[in-house]
Design the sequence.
């Protein structure tokens, strides 16, 4: 589904991502892990169009997308969440989901201005669909609440569902379990499985190794901007280079 070929991103004299090649298979959860500063979020930013790589290719369903704008990549079917929660805190919970649906709506400023019947119908359908997405993650009781009033864990869920509302084929989750308690992480594990059943492929950056090892089919490991290892959770757990990168040598 997604393939990168020797992607390199530099900031001045610093090489943040160094010739990283990955192959994300459809209908799987793939993990991207590594120590702090390994280049994981920078790599996500390259895939989602925030950064353009200095060299290398990013291909989504066979089409090169490096250099495309974030909204163009979203329209192709890639969405993402952020390491730092990036919600509109003064909007309602339901309105945040509507923002995620924006790229799939047909109305424009002219139809909004005149409030023509087709725009009214689409708006009504969008609100109903947004409510169904909230039910998908159990947030429907908070639909009319201001987003800033939600707990941190629920805001994390809202970010995920806002991404899903754009009907993606691939969702990039940047530390979805950050700030969640043990029960919320168990619920996240179950939610990820239900997202897969929707036909949405998942690429996930996460520091919670128990969650990663439980849910991921394959794992890529970055260290100092380079690809250190790739394999099944068991293979990665037993890789001596990975152990050294996380824990240091003997």
Sequence:
């Amino acid at each position: 589904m997604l393939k990168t070929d020797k992607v390199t991103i530099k900031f001045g004299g610093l090489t943040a991502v160094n010739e990283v090649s990955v192959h994300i298979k459809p209908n799987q959860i793939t993990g991207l892990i590594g120590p702090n500063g390994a280049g994981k979020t920078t790599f996500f930013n390259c895939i989602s169009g925030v950064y353009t790589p200095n060299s290398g290719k990013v291909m989504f369903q066979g089409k090169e997308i490096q250099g495309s704008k974030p909204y163009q990549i979203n329209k192709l079917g890639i969405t993402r969440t952020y390491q730092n929660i990036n919600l509109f805190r003064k909007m309602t919970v339901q309105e945040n989901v509507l923002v995620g649906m924006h790229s799939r709506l047909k109305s424009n400023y002219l139809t909004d201005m005149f409030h023509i019947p087709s725009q009214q119908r689409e708006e009504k359908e969008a609100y109903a669909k947004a409510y169904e997405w909230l039910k998908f993650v159990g947030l429907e009781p908070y639909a009319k609440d201001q987003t800033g009033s939600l707990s941190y864990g629920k805001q994390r869920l809202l970010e995920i569902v806002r991404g899903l509302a754009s009907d993606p084929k691939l969702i990039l989750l940047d530390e979805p379990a950050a700030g969640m308690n043990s029960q919320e992480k168990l619920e996240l594990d179950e939610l990820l499985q239900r997202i897969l059943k929707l036909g949405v492929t998942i690429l996930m950056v996460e520091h919670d190794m128990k969650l990663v090892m439980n849910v991921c089919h394959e794992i890529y490991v970055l260290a100092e901007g380079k690809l250190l290892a790739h394999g099944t959770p068991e293979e990665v757990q037993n890789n001596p280079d990975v152990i050294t990168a996380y824990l240091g040598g003997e």
The chain has a mean pLDDT of 89. The two ends are 39 Å apart (CA to CA). The chain has two domains: 1-77+168-250, 87-166.
